[in-house]
Amino acid sequence: MLIAGFPAGAFQTNCYVVAPAAGEECVIVDPGQEASDGVEELLREHRLKPVAVLLTHGHLDHVWSVAPVCGARDIPAWIHPEDRHLLSDPAAGWSDASAQLFGGITLSEPDDVRELADGAVLKLAGLELVVDHTPGHTKGSVSFRLPEDEIMFSGDLLFAGSIGRSDLPGGDYPTILRSLAAKCLPLPDETIVLPGHGPQTTIGRERATNPYLKEATAPHAGPTRGI
């Protein structure tokens, strides 16, 4: 298994390329702000051929470069239908004050957009990725798992020591707790978590130390948290 990544742009959003090995096909996860050059560098370094872009959710910092990356390689983008509108209307994912900062930014959908469903298994680039719908950060948030390798791309659901914020449009704190309880807590402790921001962690480490995973054992309404 080859997984390489880098934090992209001002938001430091983790972008990943995933392949069975160097010199093979790959998928690209969450190409954010100014990610195109970094993606191309990883593809050249590891001699990879991308076949799809996978999006954990529709926030601008995760989808900023999806159209140019897909267009350069003529590949599809996969996103949950609840977040698809954010590909062409990024301001809809932010508060009114934040949206003003992005008012001059125009994005468009890639030519080929395909929709994700909870429990789907994507067979791409010689990989089998399980899709888990994990709303709470946005309505269409998902995580991607490689069960055989015990790896999870958590997007902005789960971070090392924290969780994604739930105070933006489409976010909801009790809902993100339910997603954590349903999709994270049942996983083996050894599962490696590759988040949308910050360093990698494991389910076991977060189960033992993350206060939000502890709270997720009995979800209830509370204050918004996270990044």
Automatic annotation (TrEMBL):
Residues 12-197 form the Metallo-beta-lactamase domain. SMART domains: Lactamase_B. Keywords: Hydrolase, Metal-binding, Zinc. Transmembrane segments: none annotated. Its cofactor is Zn(2+). It holds the Pfam family Lactamase_B. InterPro entries: MBL_Glyoxalase_II, Metallo-B-lactamas, RibonucZ/Hydroxyglut_hydro. It comes from the Bacteria. CDD domains: metallo-hydrolase-like_MBL-fold (cd06262). PANTHER family: HYDROXYACYLGLUTATHIONE HYDROLASE GLOC. This is MBL fold metallo-hydrolase. It comes from Nonomuraea typhae. The lineage of its organism: Bacteria, Bacillati, Actinomycetota, Actinomycetes, Streptosporangiales.
